[in-house]
Amino acid sequence: MNIKKYIKRKFPRQSGDGAGGQEKIIQLYENKIKPLAKIKIKRSVWITLGIVLLAIAVLVGIQLHVYRDYQVLSSAENEDTQSAGYTQLGDGLLKYGDDGAYLLSQSQEIVWNQTYEMSNPDSDVRGEYTVIYDRKGTLMYVLKQDKPVGPIETKFPILQAEVTETGAVAAVLEDGEKTWINYYASDGSIIAENQTRIENPGYPLDIAVSPKGDIIMVSYLYIEEGEISSRIVFYSFGDEGQNKVDNIIADYTYKNTLIPQVVYVNDQTAVAFRDDGYTIFDSNGTVEKKVEEELKEEIISTFYDDKYFGLVLKGDEEEEPYILQLFDPSGRKKCSKGFDKEYQDISISGDMIIMCDSEKVMMYNLKGILKFDGTMEEGAVKNIFQVASKRYIVVSEGGINTIRLK
């Protein structure tokens, strides 16, 4: 709006007045009103800016806030927390031991239980299913979140077992100088079996099964001309492997390299942790190398879930002896964080990377920001599982507690 034209139209000259009346009003506007309007505009801008900055400060404060204490929401005394095994199954906690297993709700109530007899039970979880197996024994038990499924008997002692999201189980069995890699349906029937020898293709160090169960990945160790080498072999039990020898759809050799661990991050992404780095494979139908990274730093620890995988590398001994790194399935680095505190165990649960050293616990979010640094008063921690944003199930020498960070 042209203010001067408006004043002339609103305040027409009166007879005998000339232009003096209009000029005075215009002069008053120029000298008094216009500067005040500018001040009001500037004040509104500053107020808006202040609100935005305050909101940013609050968000940053929340993001950078480090919790150091917690509230116990529920607890259950447990005398054998050190001898039993624990794993998260759905939103509950599965406890398993020599004589059976039972699922606990977050309020420490028993949902169901299953009895069996094992000497050295271990477990693997994928989605709603878990398999509990007797290392060096011949019994496995498949369990689902809502109920137990049933037992699987093997002919030879079990070295390792992995479950799929449909309840099928892949197992490495020991048979003297030979080993077997067998694949079972959840009802115990054999889907496939494959005998291996140390000379060909090698001794199986680790196996990983795709979540849908159609591909088994095996890391073999073998000795050639006095040198240790490794092979990564992919077996397909879907259409791709029907016309292949021994169902092998991909085979990779790594000279003078040890590959102690292989994992499936999701249904089409597998990762091999080598002693000198890591390799990411795309196994969507056919298998191809997607990323192969060689690291100068020593790998101290590895961890993973169904969305990410991570490494702890050896860093500067004086300032930051450890480097925490997290990657998505494509190999893109999500965070890299140096730290100087000792730890005995590292895992990823929900959206937190959790480190434990006896009763001391540290938690980092997926951006590498420290979110909790404190001590559990209930004693040495065995397991921690995230069940909600700030709520966790903690298994310690004092029992099982559901806590909330504060």
Number of helices: 2
Mean pLDDT: 87
Q: What is the straight-line distance between the termini?
A: 56 Å
Q: Count all strands and give the number.
A: 32
Q: Helical amount among residues, as a percent range?
A: 10-25%
Task: Compute the CA-based radius of gyration.
Answer: 32 Å
Largest sheet: 4 strands, antiparallel
Residue ranges: pLDDT <50 for 5 or more in a row? none
The largest sheet has its strands arranged as: 1-32-31-30
Strand content: over 45%
SS content category: mainly beta
The shape, in one word, is: globular
Write up this protein:
The structure is a single chain. The chain has helices spanning 3-10, 20-64, and strands at residues 70-76, 85-89, 92-96, 100-104, 110-115, 121-126, 129-134, 139-144, 148-153, 158-163, 169-175, 178-184, 190-197, 203-209, 215-224, 227-236, 248-255, 261-266, 269-274, 277-282, 288-294, 299-304, 309-314, 322-327, 333-339, 345-349, 352-357, 360-365, 370-375, 381-386, 391-396, 399-405. The protein is mainly beta and 406 residues long. It has a four-stranded antiparallel β-sheet, with no helix packed on it. Strand 22 (299-304) and strand 23 form a beta hairpin. The model has no long low-confidence stretch (mean pLDDT 87).
Short description:
With 406 residues, the protein is mainly beta.
Please render the helix and strand layout as text:
Elements: H1 3-10, H2 20-64, E1 70-76, E2 85-89, E3 92-96, E4 100-104, E5 110-115, E6 121-126, E7 129-134, E8 139-144, E9 148-153, E10 158-163, E11 169-175, E12 178-184, E13 190-197, E14 203-209, E15 215-224, E16 227-236, E17 248-255, E18 261-266, E19 269-274, E20 277-282, E21 288-294, E22 299-304, E23 309-314, E24 322-327, E25 333-339, E26 345-349, E27 352-357, E28 360-365, E29 370-375, E30 381-386, E31 391-396, E32 399-405
Antiparallel strand pairs: 1-32, 2-3, 3-4, 4-5, 6-7, 7-8, 8-9, 10-11, 11-12, 12-13, 14-15, 15-16, 16-17, 18-19, 19-20, 20-21, 22-23, 23-24, 24-25, 26-27, 27-28, 28-29, 30-31, 31-32
